[in-house]
Write a structure and sequence with these properties.
Structural class: mainly alpha
Distance between the termini: 60 Å
Oligomer: single chain
Shape: globular
Number of helices: 8
Helix content: over 70%
Length: about 180
């Protein structure tokens, strides 16, 4: 444990953009799940999406970063905002908040789960130094296309069907209120 702090400080000095973008993504993700107003949650999701695009750029996958911004930030987030505005939820329709002790217990359970998942990487020094070399074609258009339309073609199409069903569900819910 004594070697953990110098390792974190040294790593932070070597790549501060990675840690800043990662921290921004985590904070925006927390903002997404803690906001009561769905529009503010969507704005937090925008920040998380943009921080993840910066992480892609730092990792050398500029094509993935551009596609992430175009597809998720440009299309999916706009779709979410469209459905949120279409539903036109009133504050009383958002439901009751859980009591503070329940929210605290859930936060504690989430922190415990994070600790269980992060402990091996933080406590075992050999796991910190096993960075693999990135292939030269990582994040290129050809590699992404072969992967996306090869072994992941079915999940890709199922995700598009899921989004389409969500759109129809939003429209049906909005039509019931009129």
């Amino acid at each position: 444990m004594n070697d953990l702090i110098p390792w974190l400080v040294q790593d932070l000095k070597s790549d501060p953009v990675f840690y800043l973008a990662g921290g921004a993504a985590v904070l925006c993700g927390l903002g997404l799940v803690t906001r009561r107003n769905p529009v503010y949650g969507a704005i937090s999701m925008l920040g998380a999406f943009l921080a993840l695009a910066v992480l892609y750029i730092v990792l050398g996958a500029s094509f993935l970063a551009a596609m992430h911004v175009l597809v998720y930030t440009g299309a999916i987030l706009v779709l979410f905002l469209f459905v949120i505005m279409l539903l036109n939820l009133q504050p009383d329709e958002l439901g009751q908040e859980y009591p503070l002790p329940t929210r605290g217990l859930v936060a504690l359970l989430c922190a415990g789960l994070f600790g269980v998942l992060a402990a091996p990487a933080l406590l075992d020094p050999s796991l910190r130094s096993t960075a693999k070399a990135v292939p030269a074609d990582f994040g290129s258009i050809e590699t992404v296309g072969r992967t996306l339309f090869g072994p992941y073609a079915l999940p890709f199409e199922l995700a598009s069907i899921l989004i389409l069903v969500a759109i129809f569900g939003g429209v049906v819910l909005a039509k019931k209120k009129v």
